Structures are given as structure tokens and as C-alpha cells.
Amino acid sequence: MPVRRLDLVPTPAGWATTALADVEALLSDHAHCEKKAAQTALNLAHALTTHDQLVIRLARLAEQEAEHLRRVIEVIHELGLHFRPDAGNAYAQALARQAHDVVDRCLAAACIEARSHERLDLLAAETARRADLAHLRPLFDELRAAEAGHAHTYLEIAVAVRDARTV
After folding, report:
1. Is pTM beyond 0.85 here?
2. Separation of CA 33 from chain center
3. How many CB atoms lie within 10 A of CB 113?
């Protein structure tokens, strides 16, 4: 299924440089995002219990998100940093408020995953340019590869629940 770009409003130039100025905050925030992504997948699996194949896909997605949570927290500790408390995310919260049914929730999740992919791409590019942050590039590459697939998965699930034209 072809997917149109979900990032019609691109992340501002310089975002990655600003985000990487506080690696501890960046990684902590991303770890919390991965935790919430796993919870989202499990919550959607619960909402779709009559769709066995969709539940299996969502369980696999939740498993991958939980693995990413573990990986990010391991990197935080390897760098001698601390896992900070969750500061919340206004973007994700605003999308969640617009979700009224399971399809809306899938679309909101797809938008969040697509934005995450975009930003991880920017972080990977920035760390490739900076020798002092090159050690973070493999993590960002690993995570960004998965995020695009997650966005597609949520769109495919939405189409499986409701027709493609409506989605």
C-alpha cells in the first residue's frame, strides 16, 4: 500500500543540533517514547481481540518497541548518564486527543512513528557529521530503520479494520 508523506510540516532546521546538546535528555525522552509505543501497540491489540492476525502483528510491534526501550536505556547507562523522568510530549498528547476510535488511534500512532523516523534520520545524519557523537550513530540508524516500518504497520492495520478509501 503506498503511503503519502506524513511529515507535511518538517522538523525545523537545527533541531538535531539542539537535541544533541543534551544527550541525556534526548535519550531519556526517546526511551519514554519507546515505552509508550509498546503500550500503544498492546492497547490496540486489546481493542482488536477479535482480529487474531492483527493482534499478532501488534504483539510483534510491542515486542520490538520494548526491545528498543531496553537498548536506549542500556546506551544511557553505558554513557554514564541517568534515565530521566518522563516530561511528556505535547505533540503525541494532541494527536491522542483527536483519536476517537481504533482507526484514529492507528493513524495517530502512524503519525508519531513517521515523525520519529524523520527525527531519527536527522539525528543519524548529525552524528555522522560530528566525531564527538559518532558513537550514537549506530543506535539512531537501528531505531530509524524500524520506525518507518512501524508507521506502515499502523496504516495497514487501519486499512484492515476499515476500508482503504476511508482511511
Report:
1. yes
2. 6
3. 26
